[in-house]
Amino acid sequence: MTILRNAGPRAAYIHIPFCEHICHYCDFNKVFLKGQPVDKYLDMLEREVELTLELHPPEEMDSVFVGGGTPTSLNEGQLERLCRIISSHLPLSNQTEYTFEGNPGDLSIDKLEVLKNHGVNRLSLGVQTFDDTLLERIGRSHRAKDVYNTIDNARKAGFDNISLDLIYALPGQTLADFKDTLKQAFSFGLPHFSGYSLIIEPKTVFYNLMRKGKLPLPGEDIEAAMFETLMEEMEQHGLHQYEISNFAKPGYESTHNLTYWSNEPYYGFGAGAHSYLGGWRRSNAGPLTKYMSPIENGSLPVFEENEVTRQEAMEEEMFLGLRKVEGVSKGHFQRKFGVSLDSIFPGQLEELSKKGLLEADGDSVRLTRIGRMLGNEVFQEFLAG
Which of 145, 190, 275, 336 has its Cα between 20 and 30 A from that of 102? Predict the structure, then answer.
C-alpha cells in the first residue's frame, strides 16, 4: 500500500547560522558572525539549492521561511544577495508567505527596505520578554525599547504581517512579569504570536548553570499557570490558538508552521537545516566547513538521512498533527494511508480519550484543553516501542 505524496514540496526553510550575539538558552546551529566566510556561505547555499532542485523540482511555493541564527545580522549587500538567490531559484508568487526572522534592534530601515523590495511580506521577531532585567539574564542583546523602535520601522517600511516570539518560565520570571510582557505585546495590535516555555537544552549556558544549581527556574505549577494565562489572554485579544504554541488573528495563521504540523514535504537549505523530501528526512552537516566542503565537490551536504516507513509516517501524522488545535482529520488520514485512523491506533485513542486528553468530533481527533497542557504525554503514545 503506497502513501500518497505531493508532486513536490511547496515550502522551504533556509538557515542562516550567523549571530552577533549568542543567547544563553539557544541550541540552534549558529556561530558568531565576526570573521566568518559569509559570502562564501551564500555561494555554497546557492549551489546546494541548485543541486537539490535538480533532484526534487519545486512546485510554486506556499511558504519560504528564512531563519537562523539571525538572518538579519547580514549586511544590506548580503541580504540583497540572499534574496536574489531565493527569488531566482524558488518559484514565488504574490500568494507566497515569505518570512524573515529578525532580532529587535538589528533591523535598520535600510535592511527592512531591502527585504520589502524583494517580496518579503512577513517578519518574525525574537522578542522573548519585555522585561529588560530578564532580557539581560537570558543573554539577549536587545531591550524593550528596541522592540518598539523595530516595529515602528517595520511599519514605516510597509510590513503589517509581523509575528512576535515570546518565551515564558524564564529564570526568576514571575506570573506578574509574564502578564506585563503580554500586556505590552498586545499593545501593538499584531496578527500573530508564538509562545514557548523555556526548554533547557544541552550545550547551552543555561544547561551548565542548571547542572551547577545556579538556574532559578519557576516551578511546574507556575509554568502551567503561565501557559493557561497565555491561552486565555490570546483568546481575549482575538487571537485564536491554532497550534499548541501559536496564536493568530483569522487569516494570519503561519503557512510555514502548518506545513510542519501537517506532515507535508519541505526543503531545508543551509548548514544544519532539516528537510523532508520524497519520503526521506534529512539533516545537513552543521559546522560551516563540513557543510561547504561537499558542496564545493559537487555533492549535497547530507549529514544524516532516513527513509520514513509507512508506520513511521502514520505515527508522525498523529504526533505532529495533534499539535494543531483542529487536530487530525480521519478522512485525510484514510486518503493518505489507505486505512482508517481508528484501525491503526485503537488502543491509544481509547485510552487517551478516557484520560480526557483527546476528543473526537465528527471527522477530527484533537487534544482537549487539558491535552494541550500535557501534549508530550499524548504524543509519546503514538511512538512505536
Answer: 275
